[in-house]
Amino acid sequence: MTPSRLQNSILELKKKKSALILAHYYVDGAVQDIADFVGDSLELARKAAAADADIIVFCGVHFMAETAAILCPGKKVLSPTPGAGCSLADSIKADDLKQWKLAHPDGIIISYVNTTAETKAATDICCTSANAVKVAESVIDGKRPVLFCPDLHLGTYVNRVLGADMEIWNGSCFVHRKITSRLIRRAISEYPAAEILIHPESDCSMDEEIVNNPKCFFYSTSGIIKHVKESSGEQFIIATENGVLHKIRKECPDKRIIPISESAICTYMKKLTLENLYKTLLNETGRITVPEDIASRALVPIHRMLEL
Ligand code: SF4
Q1: What is the predicted pLDDT for the residue at 1?
Q2: Is 81 exposed, middle or buried (0-12, 13-18, 19+ CB in 10 A)?
Q3: Is 266 in the pocket of ligand 1 (CB under 6 A)?
Q4: What's the pLDDT score for residue 177?
Q5: CATH 1.20.1250.20: does it fit domain 176-259?
Q6: Disulfide: which of 5, 88, 114, 156 matches 1 by Cβ 3.0-4.6 Å?
Q7: Measured in angstroms, how far is the CA atom of residue 88 from the centroid of ligand 1?
Q8: Which of 42, 238, 266, 271 to mutate to test the pocket of ligand 1 (most atoms within 8 A of CB)?
């Protein structure tokens, strides 16, 4: 089938089954184009929580579909790529977190949503890159230690913004780890008129000079899109996974959008195709479930985050 016929077939099936398709900004543009909603982790978690469809097809990696399954226990959450992991979520296991907590028995644990359900179940409050500063601010009281996991770069960035001293796990995303200070400095010199929009999971977010550079702005994925839409600038370097360029170029066709690197690509996200989305919806396969005891504990830190 051609891509457009596949898209039409998916849309027909979606209507027939009253399914909801949620897609992350990092999946292929052809998939984003037929989704009911495209967003970042925080936006997708909110959409999943509010969904009234019986079937939710989650176009993202495993931990995202798992979060949707935790938030919607009575619904069928399907993943076209149930085996698609995430290097960041794999950076910490629930047992690692429990050991860390044993060393800080009165510590408060903030876990990024890019973690497994089991890790979330051992967490006090979750965060995403869009709300990490706000979440950290809500728990830092100067009395109890705060432990942030798993992303070293995001945690360091939050510490710098808040002047805080959270303990940070040494995990990272393999895509953002390659967005180094050297790449950013090269972009600044090659495109002197451009604004540089950087995801705080990036390696360069540990570099004080880059963080303080007036041409550099640190945002979550949705924050990057918002900045491009609202800025009067005409050129933007996008320093995050390249899937988001599709949305930005659609929304801002008159602006010049330049990826920081052609290889800023998440291979886990790109496993998702129109073909496997079609088959998943047709056969209702790839159901994501979370054991009840883990789901009920993991729901607590997710809810705390959504209520902020
Ligand atoms: S881009 Fe990084 S954090 Fe996002 S899913 Fe891929 S590996 Fe995980």
Answers
A1: 81
A2: buried
A3: yes
A4: 96
A5: no
A6: 5
A7: 6
A8: 266
